[in-house]
């Protein structure tokens, strides 16, 4: 069996773990992935620092050092500024925060966060009428946390039946960062990137709509922070995104670097990288080791590179 250091420090692509939020509190709008506590996050960062060298987004676009890692966060949630950033600054770890232009300043709530609020309410206060309505509209309650963007209107009506007010939730809880907080992160040395306008499933929309979401997102980032490196992380995954579109983004200089979420793998497209979803059920260290072992096994059969 591989030793930890031998496994993690073997030749591999830059390690790019990503998160969404860090919190010690229950977040009612997030039931679709595990929420990492502050203590756990610090332990995970110490693990990264033990086996990898932290690099900036700019360094990633050039010639990344061997055994390097770059951390990122998706969706622009407020805990990024209030909890994650101070910890990262204390430990000297660069990071990129990918934001959805449609959610900044708590303008709107991500459709799967809406689904989480509905699911939470239905667990404590079951409602047969709402459950039937969801089922009839192809959003079964047992699968509501995977609801697609196209079913947002169904979620809105279900919320009305349950007397859930999404706008009131946004005003009361303010789950997203403000423009001022994002600008402050940039001033402190963090990178800011785009993550689409309203986080749709790209594999379910046309290439024209995909490009529209990318442009709108990058336009917001450029107008508000004007980053040195323009970066975009595809929401969920880059599955369903053609190599033609990714190359077009780079060739037209919309972005200098883009990201998927296929884990530890190389990618056939230059300056397109694959990130590792760090928020997983189970033992963190074992999960990371398993990911690198899987990479090594794929490498032996010539399948360690993502083809688009």
UniProtKB/TrEMBL annotation:
PROSITE patterns membership:
NODB
Q: Where is the NodB homology domain?
A: 67-308
- Which InterPro entries does the record associate with it? Glyco_hydro/deAcase_b/a-brl (IPR011330), NODB_dom (IPR002509), Polysacch_Deacetylase (IPR051398)
The keyword Cytoplasm is annotated on this UniProt entry = no
**Cellular component, GO annotation:** extracellular region
Subcellular localization: Secreted
UniProt key word Cell membrane: no
Alphabetical keyword list: Signal
Main localization of the protein described in the UniProt heading: secreted
PANTHER family cross-referenced by the UniProt entry = POLY-BETA-1,6-N-ACETYL-D-GLUCOSAMINE N-DEACETYLASE, PTHR34216
| Protein name, per record | Polysaccharide deacetylase family protein
What's the source species for this entry? Draconibacterium halophilum
């Amino acid at each position: 069996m591989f030793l930890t250091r031998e496994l993690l420090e073997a030749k591999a692509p830059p390690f790019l773990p990503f998160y969404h939020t860090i919190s010690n509190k229950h977040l009612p709008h997030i039931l679709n992935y595990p929420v990492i506590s502050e203590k756990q996050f610090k332990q995970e960062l110490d693990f990264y620092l033990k086996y990898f060298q932290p690099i900036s987004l700019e360094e990633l676009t050039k010639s990344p050092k061997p055994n390097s890692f770059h951390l990122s966060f998706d969706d622009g949630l407020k805990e990024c500024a209030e909890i994650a950033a101070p910890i990262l600054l204390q430990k000297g770890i660069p990071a990129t925060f990918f934001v959805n232009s449609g959610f900044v300043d708590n303008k709107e709530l991500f459709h799967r966060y809406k689904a989480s609020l509905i699911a939470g309410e239905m667990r404590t206060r079951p409602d047969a009428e709402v459950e039937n309505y969801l089922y009839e509209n192809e959003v079964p309650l047992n699968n509501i946390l995977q609801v697609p963007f196209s079913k947002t209107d169904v979620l809105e009506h279900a919320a009305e039946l349950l007397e859930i007010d999404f706008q009131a939730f946004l005003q009361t809880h303010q789950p997203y960062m403000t423009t001022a907080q994002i600008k402050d992160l940039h001033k402190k040395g963090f990178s800011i990137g785009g993550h689409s306008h309203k986080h749709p499933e790209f594999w379910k929309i046309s290439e024209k709509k995909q490009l529209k979401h990318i442009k709108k997102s990058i336009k917001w980032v450029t107008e508000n922070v004007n980053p040195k490196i323009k970066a975009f992380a595809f929401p969920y995954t880059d599955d369903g995104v053609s190599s033609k579109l990714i190359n077009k983004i780079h060739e037209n200089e919309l972005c200098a670097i883009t990201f998927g979420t296929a884990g530890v793998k190389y990618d056939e497209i230059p300056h397109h990288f694959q990130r590792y979803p760090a928020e997983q059920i189970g033992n963190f260290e074992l999960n990371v080791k398993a990911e690198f072992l899987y990479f090594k096994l794929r490498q032996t059969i010539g399948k360690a590179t993502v083809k688009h």
